TrEMBL record:
One of its GO terms (biological process) is acetyl-CoA metabolic process. The keyword Lyase applies. Keywords: Lyase. This is Citrate lyase alpha chain. The lineage of its organism: Eukaryota, Metamonada, Anaeramoebidae, Anaeramoeba. GO terms for cellular component: cytoplasm.
Length: 525
């Protein structure tokens, strides 16, 4: 067998220089070591519409036909409705009825509700996925059922890829809770209001054709305008785009158990004594249960000490809105609503801002919001002794999660905290070497577990500040040892084949890691 040329990135991952279905790779060199490639930049798509032109069409299938769908195209979607989305399923059904094959799917994320896509992998409708995958689609990809390699990007990395031309979208299909006949759309009103339509903003600008799918057609103009008529080709009215009550999931509610409570307390103590907990600080927390619990605890601390945050960003939850309504957070910016309380707040309060993902996290614009973050609290599936973090794969090697804003916020916040249980059942979570590197250790400042806290040695200031408290401090190696002890075994990397099924890009488009197909063959006894 011919030996493939390889390259080693700055995290020590050995990668092939060329990957079939992807092309030449650019290895990750460091969090801020590369810049935009100007010659690849895309132009915003233009068009022409005669006065009195009609954009309403009868069905998604008709809109696809009018958009000139054909084999091999790239089709994009957003995921603001999360598990409640039905537009992806309706569109794929229409595409299959048209007999279209060999498509690249470019969703901002897929969820368990989209498991009907599995049939489209089998019959050749879908060849490749460039987008986050949760649940069944990720599991199928891990088992080699996607014919071409998947590409995983952060939220900011996805917009960067669209703007630079790495991800060229032929048809964007946008689920819109409210729209008018000329294509203006928003997510604030209608029976399936979901909040922002931020993930589709870049798609609407750069896709060759844009289709709005709505179940709430209103008189012109639909206000406010999240997606503009100047970028929309067709509007389709359906009975229902999904179920907005399913925006909320188990991962977006507080976990109430002794382990989570310990982690939450330690993380809150870290923020309080870090040097960043002061009047006018800025905050973002992930949507995981522990992160939400930290937000709640921080709110109580802010109230007790009379400290207000200037702003908070999200992935917004009712826990953030509660602090906002109490005046403990002065302004909120939202690119995704994780519950209907957040949607309602966006309707009612002018200090609650809808932000698109370019504004939020694109590393290659003239200044995105995450650059200004003081504190971010994030989760992980694994952390290693070099502080590298995995959020994509589980300890069994299965690709079950997307990146979200993890890389973007971790890279830019002044204080990045990772909250994890030290073990999950018999799996140690602090390990020698994570299965997949999603976010490099250079971006991580503190790891908080239910046993105690490890500070990245490069953060001398945090070590000095937190050493003066009663927070239990350990080296990351000590936490690794405790993780193995509590799990009852040392970490063992999952068994995989040598076939690459997924590529994890850093937010700048370089490759930080690859994901290998899980070996499903049972060991012979």
């Amino acid at each position: 067998m011919e030996k493939k040329e390889t390259v080693t990135n700055s995290c020590g991952r050995i990668l092939p220089k060329y990957i079939e279905g992807y092309g030449e790779i650019r290895p990750f060199l460091g969090a801020f070591e590369t810049g935009p490639i100007e010659e690849n930049e895309m132009r915003i798509v233009t068009g022409f519409q005669k006065p009195g032109g009609e954009k309403l069409v009868g069905t998604i299938k008709e809109a696809l036909e009018k958009s000139g769908i054909k084999d091999g195209m790239t089709i994009s979607f957003h995921h603001h409705l999360r598990e409640g989305d039905e537009v992806v399923n309706m569109a794929i059904k229409a595409i299959r009825e048209l007999g279209i094959k060999n498509l690249k799917l470019a969703p901002s994320a897929l969820f368990e509700t989209h498991k009907m896509i599995l049939e489209s992998l089998k019959d050749g409708t879908i060849r490749q996925i460039e987008g986050s995958m949760n649940g069944s689609v990720g599991r199928a990809t891990s088992e080699g059922k996607l014919s071409s390699v998947a590409v995983l990007r952060s939220h900011g990395g996805r917009v960067r890829a669209i703007r630079q031309g790495d991800l060229k979208i032929d048809i964007a299909i946008i689920a819109a809770p409210t729209a008018d006949p000329y294509g203006n759309a928003n997510g604030l009103y209608g029976k399936n209001a979901c909040g922002p339509l931020a993930y589709s903003h870049a798609d609407s600008l750069y896709a060759k054709k844009v289709i709005i799918v709505t179940d709430n057609l209103v008189k012109y103009p639909a206000i406010p305008v999240s997606i503009s008529q100047i970028n929309v080709d067709y509007v389709v009215v359906v009975d229902s785009i999904g179920d907005n009550t399913k925006i909320v999931s188990g991962t977006t509610t507080i976990q109430s158990n002794p382990i989570s409570e310990k982690i939450s307390k330690f993380a809150t103590d870290v923020v309080e004594h870090s040097g960043y907990f002061k009047e006018g600080f800025s905050l973002q927390a992930g949507a995981g249960g522990i992160s939400l619990s930290v937000v709640k605890s921080l709110g109580e601390l802010m109230e007790a000490k009379g400290i207000k945050a200037a702003w908070a960003n999200g992935g917004t939850t009712r826990y953030v809105i509660d602090l906002f309504k109490k005046g403990l957070i002065e302004k909120v910016s939202t690119c995704q609503a994780f519950d209907l309380v957040s949607v309602q707040s966006m309707k009612e309060d002018p200090l609650h801002l809808e932000t698109n993902i370019d504004f939020y996290a694109n590393p290659f614009n003239k200044g995105c919001l995450v650059n200004l973050l003081d504190v971010v609290i994030l989760g992980a599936t694994e952390v290693d002794v070099n502080f590298n973090v995995n959020v994509n794969t589980h300890s069994d090697g299965y690709l079950l999660h997307g990146i979200g804003g993890h890389q973007d916020t971790a890279a830019c916040a002044k204080l990045t905290i990772i909250t994890v249980p030290i073990s999950r059942k018999t799996n140690p979570i602090i390990v020698d070497d994570v299965t997949t590197i999603t976010t490099p250790g250079e971006c991580i400042d503190v790891v908080v577990t239910d046993v105690g806290v490890a500070i990245n040695p490069k953060r001398k200031d945090l070590i000095e500040n937190l050493s003066k408290t009663d927070i239990p401090l350990f080296t990351i190696e000590q936490l690794r040892d405790k993780a193995a002890e509590l799990a009852g075994r040392s970490y063992v990397k999952p068994k995989t084949t040598d076939r690459i099924i997924g590529i994890v890009q850093w937010r700048d488009g370089t490759v930080i890691d690859v994901v290998y197909q899980v070996d499903t063959n049972k060991d012979e006894k």
